[in-house]
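Sat 14:20. Reprocessing the chain from the morning session after the first attempt stalled halfway. Input below, unchanged.
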Amino acid sequence: MNQFADTCHTPWGDLNAVTRLLSAAEAKRIDLGVAADGAVSLLQLMEQAGLVAAGWAERILPQGYPIIILAGAGQNGGDGWVAARVLAARGYALTVIDFAVERQLPQEAALNRAAAKAAGIRIERPDVFMAWPADRPALIMDALFGSGFLADRGMPPVCADAISKANQLGREGSVVLAIDLPSGVEATTGRASDPSIRAELAVSFVRPKIGQIAHPGVLHQHRIESDPLGITSEKINTLLSDVGPAACLMTDRATAMLLQPFQRDRHKGQGGKAGLIGGHETMPGAVVLAARAMAMTGVGYVSVLASERLRSDLLTVLPEALQPAGRDPSWLKNQDAIVYGPGLGDLETVSLTEVIATAKRLVIDADGLNRLARLPGWKTMLAARKMPAVLTPHVGEFKRLAAYWDDDRTAGARRLALETGCIVVLKGMSTVTAAPDGQAVLNPTGNPGLAKGGSGDVLSGLIGGFLAGGMLPFQAAAAGVYVHGKAADMAAQEKGERALLPQDVIEFMPRVFRSLG
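Finished this time. Tokens:
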């Protein structure tokens, strides 16, 4: 079975294990495909979307707040017109701000605007919204732009002014609800124009969009609620079967499926052998953190090849770790997985060329990535491996490995994975794990407390341990990132983000594993 198959469920064996995220083109294709089947029309889909948006507005509407709906010139505006009609029929005080007074709307949106007018709903021009007083908080429903928005095209100044006004009111007590996704955020990339809506809630239709999870788009809504509008996972995968690999959102369920319970008669030989190469004497903590995290994965053996001066430190902190004496030629071949780079500095133990050629399964991190960027022909070497290596760069390291960077993190990770035949873990908020065929998983766990030296060492140790235990590289990387972030989230609940340390992440890993069953 291809571990990088073109539907999200294949690496986990369950259709609903992960959540498929949609690009703008995929969202449009689903709408048109469902309508073409004849079971439901585009007008009926819009009606359902508006009903869902209205329902969420009712749920979060503070008592006494009026409702303002910002209706744009496209189908997203049509969703807003439906929501207005539904909410007005239920007795709510509302005003629709029409940003398409002089423009021709798509057929479905035009019909719903006409229905709202016929129902006697109050409709105003944008200047009324711009004059809205800050001391009169409201529920503001953003239906200006849908998933087709592109930042490079810009937006009409009147819409930009309205978005700035909505954000200002949101800071002063109003509540902002985005219909489908916040206006100004690109559905496919996560790029956000200046300004872009900052919403308390985004009600996403069919599935969340990639740009709502990818950075920086993820910053533009406090939370996301998604409604399938009656469209099943099977239907989505059928309609998108020929559009290429998917982007997905990692979940508890998918991670739990990879963390299989131990057999009662398990022995340490079945747990795998994980090796770690790093540990310059000036950076002893990196290799210690990586080794401790590696040991937490359930691997049978952890072996560390580091500076001789770190032997006593390792023995004190992790007495379970083996420390090969000298340069044993067979050591590298005997490891089921190798993590190369934590705290490596200029330490010379095993050459990176030999590691790439010999290691059965491989993670390259930290100083290992810096060495990789200087190694002639490194992409060709990695592409020739039987088992894909895992590269774990942060943005700075990524830029040293790749000549391109345009803030589309998902596309960047996919491109480097394709060029190298590697699994690329592009670290940061909503970490992206990408495979050579374009499959990508975005990670929802983690918090700003991870932005400290040593966090990456913990992550590389986790991934290396999962690899040694038998997971495939794409699975090990996605699971490692998820567990790492979830442990940080649990730790932050007790310690707070400010005081969170990488070693706390390790200490909370047992809780994560227990919570995942």
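Confidence is low (pLDDT under 50) at residues 1-15.
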